[in-house]
Amino acid sequence: MMADRYLAFANRPVGRFLTGRLGLPQPRPLLRHAEGQPAVIGPVLAGSAPGGRLAEAVVATLAGTPAAMLFEGDAADWPGLAARHGVMAARFLPGQSGRAGSAVFDATGIADPAGLDALYTFFHHCVREIAPDGRIVVLGAPPETCADADARIAQRALEGFTRSLGKEARRNIAVQLVRVAADADAAALDSTLRFFLSRRSAYVSGQVVHVAAPVVDLPEAAPRAHRGRRVLVTGAARGIGAAIAEAFAREGAKVVALDVPQAGADLLSLAQRLGGSRLALDITDPASDAVILEDAATHGGYDVVVHNAGITRDRTIARMSRAEWDQVMQVNLLAPLRITEALLGAGALGPNGRIVGVSSIAGIAGNLGQTNYAATKAGVIGMVDALAPRLAARGATINAVAPGFIETRMTAAIPFAIREAGRRMNAMGQGGLPEDVAETILWLAEPRSAGVNGNIVRVCGQSLLGA
Ligand code: NAD
């Protein structure tokens, strides 16, 4: 993997001085999750527009974490809710309370465009009071289910607000909009809120996520959410796939690591290290389905399937060979579709099961020389759209992550100038790490994320390229 030498340089005293004098970007390394860290970056500054319905869900999410709460305004009964849930709470006094670790603003009560004023009132005073590496979450309602046009317009406006706040908050602060269905309760929201208020979401910013009411009964929250779950990860021998396998194993899952036979040695050492098992298979070979199904049948199916294996064969369409087109189609799109159908047909996805695709920001924004790759990665988004209702009917979910620039062998092969642009042109000013993608997938795959279905979540530090 290519080291980000600029990031290292800009964080040495001489580098900080020179980059400052020259007006160059001054990214700071992101603070990521480490074992034993609190689930939520506290204290959490809470606010609400009048008529918001999620104040109790916010306080309930903080209960059971060490995070204290600061509150702004009287639109919700914050002291009463905090007392009921055993959360330490104090009124926020700008300049006196100290900085907050994160902020959550309940905007579900904004019912017309004039009501957007509540965003100004809260964030104008508070945004500077959030410490570096903090988090901001705006909670909204799904615009398409709003009662009238005014509410729909106002809720849609939240998207432009949060995406812009993500671009201007800087200091490694990540900002998201979470749209919560009217019938989704606090339990449906907590895995999502905790993820976005934690260090795990360090490279996820500017995202809009939908949380619906789960169609299954949620299991109790557990410290190791994936304990005992069987997780199939394709393309696991290296890069992002290896990080996904390691993250699931760390959380107690039984990992089945799949990769091509040529990667056999890496696959074996990974499976041994993680106490998991391995499947040395080329997923483009239709005969691989039978091997996967047999593994599933022998061990009681899979709870989670992560379609991570992917390749690039970059060339402009006029110069691209048919083989380059075909290989990318086969690995990135046709194989995941075929394997998913085989697993669903055989009933091999467990109850409250999860499928997670790996798309790319190239599939959203397009990229020069990547017509084949971007078609497949947009196709992964299509797979999520098409299958989400079918999986919901089985009590399962399908979502995808869309990584931006992640430091792997794939991106180390990009020519220098384009690689530097990819690294710097995002709100965090640096590339992500494979673990950033892995953490996002862990959240989507949590048993308590049953209301998170049909989402595409970019892990791109809010890339300035594309959406
Ligand atoms: P990588 O090349 O380091 O790893 C990909 C793995 O997939 C390899 O171990 C490879 O052997 C395996 N694989 C390839 N073809 C296979 C096949 N036919 N059967 C089984 N396994 C196969 O790539 P990475 O950077 O870790 O990317 C992982 C995923 O993330 C890919 O889907 C990629 O498109 C996507 N992605 C990566 C980035 C990035 O910046 N690195 C950005 C966006 C999306």
How is the topology of this model organized?
Elements: H1 5-10, H2 13-22, E1 44-48, H3 55-62, E2 69-71, H4 78-85, E3 89-91, E4 100-106, H5 117-126, E5 130-140, H6 149-169, E6 174-180, H7 186-196, E7 207-211, E8 230-234, H8 239-250, E9 254-259, H9 264-274, E10 277-280, H10 288-299, E11 302-307, H11 322-345, E12 349-358, H12 362-365, H13 371-393, E13 397-403, H14 409-412, H15 416-424, H16 434-445, E14 456-459
Parallel strand pairs: 1-2, 1-4, 2-3, 4-5, 5-6, 6-7, 8-9, 8-11, 9-10, 11-12, 12-13, 13-14
Helix pairs in contact: 3-4, 3-7, 8-16, 11-13
Nicotinamide-adenine-dinucleotide is lined by residues 234-235, 237-241, 259-260, 263, 282-284, 308-311, 331, 358, 360, 403, 405-406, 408-411.
Helix proportion of residues, in percent?
25-40%
What is the CATH superfamily label of the largest domain? NAD(P)-binding Rossmann-like Domain
In the CATH scheme, the class of the largest domain would be Alpha Beta
> What structural class should be given to the helix and strand makeup?
alpha/beta
Mean pLDDT level: 95
Small-molecule binders here are:
nicotinamide-adenine-dinucleotide
CATH topology of the largest domain: Rossmann fold
What's the CATH architecture name of the largest domain?
3-Layer(aba) Sandwich
Rg result: 22 Å
How many domains make up the coordinates? 2
Task: Report how far the terminal alpha carbons are from each other.
Answer: 27 Å
Quick one: overall form? globular
Order of helices and strands: HHEHEHEEHEHEHEEHEHEHEHEHHEHHHE
Number of strands: 14
* Major β-sheet strand ordering: 3-2-1-4-5-6-7
Strand residue percentage: 15-25%
Low-pLDDT regions = none
Major beta-sheet overview: 7 strands, parallel
Number of helices: 16
Domain Ketoreductase: 229-409
InterPro entries: KR_dom, NAD(P)-bd_dom_sf, Sc_DH/Rdtase_CS, SDR_fam
Pfam family, one: adh_short_C2
GO molecular function, one term: oxidoreductase activity, acting on the CH-OH group of donors, NAD or NADP as acceptor
